[in-house]
Amino acid sequence: MFKGLVRKTIPLVAFGVGIAGFPRDWRAGHPQDTKLLHINEEVLRQIQSTKEYKQLESNKSLRQYNSSNAFPGQHHNNYVGTGLLFGPDLFEIDPIVFIDEEKGELTSFYHLGDKLISQDGQIHNGVVSTILDEGLCAAGFPLLPAKKGVTAKLLIDFKNQAPPQSTVVLRAKVKEAKGRKVVIGGYLETLPLDDNKAEKPLLIAESTCILVQPKWFKYFTWLQI
Ligand SMILES: *[C@@H]1O[C@H](CO)[C@@H](O)[C@H](O)[C@H]1NC(C)=O
Ligand SMILES: *[C@@H]1O[C@H](CO)[C@@H](O)[C@H](O)[C@H]1NC(C)=O
């Protein structure tokens, strides 16, 4: 019986260690952070020229973050995000994030390069999961009493695979905030870059995230994945 328990617990503990960095204030930023090595300026310009970007930028109730510091620090190293896989052909720009911290609404833009693909030549679902996890958490953190927490549950419904060289947009919104628990819903879709073209966004995945602020941050054993 003990053996069974151990076997079951190992992946959970591993995950728990991975998120143990969360309690750091994700907005604090880290001045010593390395500069970005590569930014695809053209993609950046294309995103900035969309009607949606301009609306978000002029919206006074939103804060904008450009840097990888917009997300909890630990994610940079352990997940795809802007740590290991940032660079030419991976994530070609830092995520551009707009957040309404009072309402828990977040819109963020990413560009996915050529090397984030799986064997079928499409963007890997792990990348999609990472974006959803980070983005939904970021939308939910400000509504937790301590402004920090851990992912208790992340449900992802994959709809379509994103083609390589996609510019994608994540839209996340807090659906319920009650004490130490926040439920966030969101979806990831491609961003048609030319506002004049009748190109339709392609829905990549929908997701629900349950974020909690544990009473005892040390104990992660209750985590469900
Ligand atoms: C983000 O980048 C845009 C354009 O590059 C700039 O106008 C804006 O001030 C930056 N915002 C922050 C918070 O760095
Ligand atoms: C600004 O953004 C918020 C989303 O948080 C939205 O509810 C509001 O309608 C926006 N305002 C304008 C003028 O677009």
Task: Please characterize this protein's 3D structure.
By secondary structure, this protein is of the alpha+beta class. The chain contains six helices and seven strands; from the N terminus they run αααβααββαββββ. A seven-stranded antiparallel sheet has the order 1-2-3-5-6-7-4, covered by helices on one side. Strand 2 and strand 3 (105-112) form a beta hairpin. The protein is globular and about 45 Å long. The structure holds 2-acetamido-2-deoxy-beta-D-glucopyranose (2 copies). The site of one 2-acetamido-2-deoxy-beta-D-glucopyranose (NAG) has 3 residues, from strand 1.
Structural class estimated from helices and strands: alpha+beta
Based on Cα principal axes, name the global outline.
Answer: globular
Q: Oligomer, anyone?
A: single chain
- How big a fraction of the residues is strand? 25-35%
Q: Radius of gyration, rounded? A: 17 Å
Task: State the separation between the terminal residues, measured CA to CA.
Answer: 21 Å
What ligands does this structure carry?
2-acetamido-2-deoxy-beta-D-glucopyranose
Major sheet: 7 strands, antiparallel
SSE order in H/E notation?
Answer: HHHEHHEEHEEEE
Q: Tally the helices: what do you get? A: 6
Question: Strand order, biggest sheet?
Answer: 1-2-3-5-6-7-4
Give the rounded overall mean pLDDT: 73
Low-confidence stretches: 1-37, 72-85, 220-225
Helix percentage range: 25-40%
- Say how many strands there are: 7
